């Protein structure tokens, strides 16, 4: 698959090659054998799963970083009737610091979370089906978190995963095999 994607890129049919849900060791492996650089990595990344090691790796190798679930996927509870592993994950939209900063900057908690990722140099991709929230999610370019507020958000130590990628279980390339029970 990799060589076919590289051919598509070399033939000018693609402007870039991106990967999704890779961990650091997978990224290291692919960079060793790739003849075309990886341009983007897309993974779950939000306040409670900052992916610092992966972000640092991507910055070191000039790979852009796309953060999915940037506001913690608040609609996840209504997605399915199953008892999902992430069901008890705290909602970052309800985080006391996030709410305090939302008041300070006259923004929504979602806007604070998205702006925080943007200031980290990441590309957050929030999802919504609500037109009002879609507009709010883009209304983040008229303010910047000050250095102290940015540092406080970066210092949050919670680590909660939402996307367990269960479809990878048992696959030799499961990016989460090291953390599964």
UniProtKB/TrEMBL annotation:
Domain NADP-dependent oxidoreductase: start-end pairs: 5-156
Gene3D superfamilies assigned: NADP-dependent oxidoreductase domain
Xref: PROSITE patterns: ALDOKETO_REDUCTASE_2 (PS00062), ALDOKETO_REDUCTASE_3 (PS00063)
Source organism (scientific name): Syphacia muris
Superkingdom assignment: Eukaryota
GO molecular function: oxidoreductase activity
InterPro entries given in the database record: AKR (IPR020471), Aldo/ket_reductase_CS (IPR018170), NAD(P)_OxRdtase_dom_sf (IPR036812), NADP_OxRdtase_dom (IPR023210)
Annotated protein name in UniProt: Aldo_ket_red domain-containing protein
């Amino acid at each position: 698959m990799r060589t076919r994607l590289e051919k598509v890129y070399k033939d000018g049919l693609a402007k870039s090659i991106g990967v999704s849900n890779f961990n650091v060791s997978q990224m290291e492996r692919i960079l060793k054998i790739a003849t075309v650089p990886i341009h983007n990595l897309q993974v779950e990344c939000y306040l409670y799963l900052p992916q610092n090691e992966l972000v640092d790796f991507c910055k070191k190798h000039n790979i852009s970083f796309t953060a999915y679930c940037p506001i913690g996927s608040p609609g996840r509870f209504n997605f399915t009737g199953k008892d999902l592993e992430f069901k008890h994950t705290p909602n970052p939209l309800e985080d006391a610091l996030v709410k305090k900063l939302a008041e300070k900057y006259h923004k929504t908690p979602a806007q604070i979370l998205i702006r925080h990722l943007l200031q980290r140099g990441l590309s957050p991709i929030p999802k919504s089906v609500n037109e009002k929230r879609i507009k709010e999610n883009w209304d983040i370019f008229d303010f910047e978190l000050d250095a102290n507020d940015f540092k406080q958000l970066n210092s949050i130590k919670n680590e909660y995963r939402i996307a367990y990628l269960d479809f990878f279980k048992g696959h030799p390339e499961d990016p989460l095999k090291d953390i599964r029970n």
